[in-house]
Design a protein that fits this description.
Order of helices and strands: HEEEEEEE
Distance between the termini: 85 Å
CATH architecture of the largest domain: Sandwich
CATH topology of the largest domain: Immunoglobulin-like
Strand order of the largest sheet: 4-3-6-7
Low-confidence stretches: none
Number of helices: 1
Number of domains: 2
CATH class of the largest domain: Mainly Beta
Number of strands: 7
CATH superfamily of the largest domain: Immunoglobulins
Largest sheet: 4 strands, antiparallel
Helix content: 10-25%
Shape: rod-shaped
């Protein structure tokens, strides 16, 4: 076997290894970049308190839009800047006059994106 044949075969093996790594490695490390890290729901005398924490693992400071809605109508929306690697905690008070059909929806977007990275529905009732 000639020297060039050995180099050619070694190059093909290395290329194959790189191709396998490129295709399968991102799927195995499929960690969410942004995520809810903590959720709490507390019932008070005349309100519900919902607390959610968002962690930013995007690799850069990112603006997020946090939107609360009920019955399809947004009634509270805010934009927050979360520094890379940091956690932001949002505390939301829900009063009887804001609840329609006993459901509150939380939608979180990254600024500039139309698809939310997180959607939650909380079912709450006032006695």
């Amino acid at each position: 076997m000639s020297k060039f044949s050995i180099i050619f075969i070694a190059s093909l093996v290395i290329l194959g290894g790189l191709l396998v790594f490129t295709v399968f490695r991102p799927m195995a490390a499929g960690e969410k970049l942004s995520a809810l890290t903590h959720e709490s729901i507390i019932q008070g005398e005349d309100e519900w308190i919902i607390q959610v924490s968002i962690i930013n693992r995007e690799g850069l400071d990112t603006n997020y839009i946090i939107e609360w809605s009920t019955g399809g109508e947004a009634y509270n929306s805010k934009k927050v800047l979360i520094k890379n690697g940091r956690i932001f905690t949002n505390i939301h008070h829900v009063y009887p006059d804001t609840v329609k059909e006993g459901k509150i929806q939380l939608t979180i977007y990254k600024e500039g994106e139309t698809t939310p990275f997180e959607e939650c529905t909380y079912h709450i009732h006032f006695d």
